[in-house]
C-alpha cells in the first residue's frame, strides 16, 4: 500500500490493514488517556532503526529478514523487551503479542515476517506523522513592515516535535489543541479529542499555512523585501 493510500485512510479515521491485520489510528483522547509521555516513548521505540541498536557496520551484514523486533528480543534486555511489547500493544490495540525464537514475532496468533513488520511500523509512523514547519524571514524596510515581521515570527515559531520532551519554551500539546479549537472551522473543545494525530496535525498545519500566507501578503504590501519571502499559497501541498 502506498503512502497516499495510508494517509487517505488515516485522514478518514479508517484503519489500514496489513495482511488482514487492521491498524487503527489513535485518537487524541486515547493518547491523553494512555499518557502523552508514554505515547511519545512508544512512538520513539517502534521507530528505532537497526543501526541504533547495534554497531552500524555489523547491522549492514545482517539479513533484511532480521527486524528490529528480532534484535530487541534477542538482546535479553527485559526492560527494553517489555517496553517494546507495550508500545506494539498501544498502536495495534491488542494484548496478544509474543515472541518465539523459532517463528519470530507473533501477533494475534499470526507469525509476522519482516515485510509485514516493516509495513506495520510504516503505517503507524504515517498515522502519527508530524510535519516540520519552516522558518521564513524578510528584511523590514519600514517600521510597519518591522511590526509585521515580528508578528510573522511570533506566529511561525517552530512547533516543537511532538515526539520529543516538552519544555517551557515550546508549545505543548494542550497549547496546540487550544490553538486549533480557537481558530479551526468546526473543531471545538467538545469534538477535538475525537481526532487522530494525523487529522489534528493536518488541520493545524493547514491553519498555520493560511495564517502565514496572509501575514506574508501583508508584509509585502508594507514594504518587505520580496526576495526574502517564500510566498506559499495556503492551498499548497503540506510536506
What low-confidence regions span 5 or more consecutive residues with pLDDT below 50? 130-142, 144-149, 151-168, 220-226
Lateral strand order in the biggest sheet? 3-4-5
* End-to-end gap: 19 Å
Q: Main sheet?
A: 3 strands, antiparallel
Cα-atom radius of gyration? 21 Å
Strand tally: 5
State mean pLDDT (0 to 100 scale): 78
What is the tally of helical segments?
11
- Written as H for each helix and E for each strand, in order along the chain, the element string is HEEHHHHHHEEEHHHH
Principal-axis shape equals elongated
Structural class: mainly alpha
Helical fraction:
40-55%
Report the sheet-strand fraction.
5-15%
List the helices and strands and how they pair.
Elements: H1 3-11, E1 16-18, E2 21-23, H2 28-34, H3 36-46, H4 50-53, H5 56-61, H6 68-75, H7 78-92, E3 97-100, E4 104-107, E5 110-111, H8 114-127, H9 143-155, H10 173-183, H11 197-221
Helix pairs in contact: 3-7, 6-7, 9-11, 10-11
Amino acid at each position: 500500500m502506498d503512502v497516499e493510500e495510508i494517509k487517505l485512510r488515516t485522514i478518514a479515521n479508517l484503519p489500514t490493514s496489513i495482511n488482514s491485520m487492521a491498524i487503527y489510528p489513535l485518537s487524541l483522547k486515547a493518547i491523553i488517556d494512555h499518557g502523552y509521555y508514554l505515547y511519545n516513548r512508544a512512538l520513539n521505540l517502534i521507530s528505532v532503526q537497526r543501526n541504533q541498536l547495534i554497531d552500524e557496520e555489523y547491522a549492514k551484514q545482517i539479513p533484511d529478514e532480521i527486524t528490529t523486533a528480532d534484535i530487541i528480543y534477542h538482546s535479553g534486555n527485559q526492560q527494553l523487551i517489555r517496553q517494546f511489547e507495550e508500545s506494539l500493544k498501544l498502536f495495534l490495540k491488542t494484548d496478544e503479542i509474543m515472541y518465539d525464537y523459532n517463528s519470530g514475532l507473533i501477533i494475534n496468533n499470526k507469525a509476522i515476517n519482516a515485510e509485514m513488520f516493516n509495513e506495520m511500523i510504516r503505517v503507524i509512523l504515517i498515522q502519527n506523522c508530524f510535519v516540520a514547519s519552516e522558518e521564513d524571514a524578510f528584511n523590514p524596510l519600514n517600521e510597519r513592515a518591522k511590526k509585521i515581521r515580528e508578528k510573522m515570527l511570533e506566529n511561525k515559531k517552530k512547533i516543537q516535535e511532538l515526539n520529543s520532551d516538552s519544555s517551557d519554551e515550546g508549545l505543548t500539546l494542550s497549547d496546540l489543541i487550544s490553538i486549533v479549537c480557537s481558530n479551526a472551522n468546526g473543531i471545538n473543545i467538545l469534538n477535538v479529542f475525537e481526532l487522530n494525530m494525523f487529522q489534528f496535525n493536518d488541520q493545524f498545519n493547514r491553519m498555520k499555512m493560511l495564517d502565514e500566507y496572509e501575514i506574508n501578503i501583508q508584509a509585502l504590501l508594507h514594504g518587505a523585501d520580496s526576495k526574502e519571502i517564500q510566498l506559499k499559497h495556503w492551498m499548497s501541498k503540506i510536506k
